[in-house]
Design a protein that fits this description.
By secondary structure, the chain is α/β, with parallel strands linked by helices. The protein has a domain at 161-255: Trna Endonuclease, Chain: A, domain 1, CATH 3.40.1350. The protein has helices at residues 2-7, 28-34, 40-160, 206-218, 236-240, and strands spanning 14-16, 25-27, 166-171, 178-182, 194-199, 223-228, 243-246, 249-255.
């Protein structure tokens, strides 16, 4: 019904005055007011217009309120999302700094280890060079000792062959020792045969006796003799115990 009223064109504000037979013009509202009649169509139109205006105003207010709530909620949600991402960003930034710090520490440690290894390699190379030089010196000394020892052994063999009643065999291979024995009046060697090791060094050591015992066992000789050039080359224990048994081999410690 309101829709139909809205489609009807509004009545003219002026009309012919029936009181004056068309003389002069009065507004419709004035004529109806003089007659004591209200313009119901006009009132209805105005009421409808006012109703539409109020309805539109209400709807505009509602839309504005909805948009205001929407914008407020949007701002709130945006702020929450920004805050959450900001926290995540702070966390990621802190984690990134931790990883960068750990990477720097690892790099420094790796550099330190490389430098340490380089120093160790340099020290090892210097030590190797020193050892090689020392080894060459020892080889030279050993060659000298070997020549001196060989000469000493040959001198001793020539001297021992002049001892009465003693038979000296040839020099044994590898060990450089001799096998000696007593001989009968005809010059034939008698048992037991004895293994003899001649030493010309500052002092004999226990390993010299161990080697002498081992060589005697390998040749099944029950007696071994350790001979030095000077009395002082024997240890105190050797001078006090010239004759004794060790590991089943009898050992005589004496001098030339």
């Amino acid at each position: 019904m309101d829709h139909k009223l809205a489609l009807v064109p509004p009545p003219s504000d002026t009309m012919e005055c029936p009181l004056c037979l068309g003389k002069g013009e009065l507004t419709r509202a004035e004529v109806l007011d003089r007659l004591g009649v209200k313009d119901m169509a006009r009132v209805a139109q105005l009421s409808a217009e006012e109703a539409f205006r109020l309805l539109l105003q209400k709807q505009e207010h509602a839309v504005q309120n909805d948009w205001a709530r929407f914008e407020s909620e949007l701002v709130k949600r945006t702020a929450d999302i920004g805050l959450r991402h900001q926290d995540e960003l702070h966390s990621l930034t802190a984690r990134t700094k931790e990883l960068e710090s750990a990477a720097r520490v690892a790099e420094q440690q790796r550099t330190h280890e490389i430098q340490h290894l380089n120093r160790q390699v340099e020290d090892s190379l210097r030590e190797l060079a020193t050892l090689q030089e020392r080894n060459n010196e020892l080889k030279s000394e050993l060659c000298k000792v070997a020549r001196i020892g060989k000469r000493e052994e040959m001198d001793f063999a020539e001297e021992a062959r002049g001892w009465p009643g003693i038979c000296v065999g040839g020099k044994l291979p590898k060990t450089g020792d001799f096998i000696i024995s007593f001989r009968d009046p005809s010059g034939a060697p008698l048992e037991p045969r004895m293994l003899l090791d001649n030493k010309d060094k500052a002092s004999v050591v226990e390993s010299d006796l161990d080697k002498l015992v081992r060589d005697a066992k390998e040749r099944s000789l029950p007696v071994a003799v350790l001979v030095t050039r000077e009395e002082t080359q024997l240890r105190q224990i050797d001078r006090e115990d010239r004759w004794g048994c060790k590991d089943g081999i009898w050992i005589l410690r004496t001098t030339r």
